[in-house]
Amino acid sequence: MADKLVYVTGKGSTRKDEKTKSFQPAAGPTKMRLEMKGRGGKTVTVLWNFPFTEDEVKAIIKTIQQRSACGATFKDGRAEFQGDVKDKALAYFQEQGWKLQLAGG
Fold first, then answer.
1. Model pTM?
2. What is the pLDDT along the chain (105 residues), one digit of tens a residue?
């Protein structure tokens, strides 16, 4: 127990600083798939590979979320929507004239 550091004065945190990941726009078309594994049997629609800035992606997510009345999050460059909203997301992308590629089955 004596070798375990409990309190340090004057040094601040002893933990390593975590590097934050910055979002980088992708070159190709946005891709979409449905996922169920590791989510307790719940269906989640995932979009990734956005060729837009982070603010534009968040605005897109908010619009699709409002149209489909579902929860959504943006993390690690991926947009995750609760439930199967692929039809509404596809319709929104076509409406805007953007390409959306379906991945998986």
1. 0.75
2. 567 767 666 665 656 555 556 778 888 889 999 999 988 889 999 999 999 999 999 999 999 999 999 999 999 889 999 999 999 999 999 999 999 999 886
Task: Give which of 69, 68, 59 is closest to 96, Cα–Cα.
Answer: 59
For residue 43, which of 88, 81, 83, 71 has the smallest C-alpha distance? Answer: 83
